[in-house]
Each structure stands twice: as structure tokens, then as C-alpha cells.
């Protein structure tokens, strides 16, 4: 991956295939577990203001 490239980790409710053909499924693995396994392998882009963005559940959604 180079500068400006993005990777998305999403739950099962995200329509990933609508964004592209390269989708890797990790059924049964939480996003937190994926991040803890993958983040040590990547150097985060220090040239952008926020190299990591995390979404939170909406109000009333658990």
C-alpha cells in the first residue's frame, strides 16, 4: 500500500462488494481482533491528519 491508499474493516452488515471486487471475509472475527492482528504489519500514513477513522454505532443501536 502507498500514500493515500485505504483499507476498510467492516462488520457483516456493510455492503463491501458494492465498493469493489477485492473483499476478504473473516466471518466470526471481530473488527477489534482484526485490527490488533493487522495494524502491526502496516506503517500508518504520517502525512494525513487522521490515518485511522473509527465509526461508532448510531444512537439507539447496539
UniProtKB/TrEMBL annotation:
Q: Which Pfam families match?
A: RbsD_FucU
* Superkingdom in the source lineage: Bacteria
Coiled coil ranges (UniProt) are none
* Reactions catalysed, as given in the entry: alpha-L-fucose = beta-L-fucose; beta-D-ribopyranose = beta-D-ribofuranose
Print the keywords alphabetically: Isomerase
- The question of whether Isomerase is a record keyword is answered with yes
UniProt-listed SUPFAM superfamilies: RbsD-like (SSF102546)
The protein depicted here goes by the name L-fucose mutarotase
- Please tell me the species this chain comes from: Vibrio variabilis
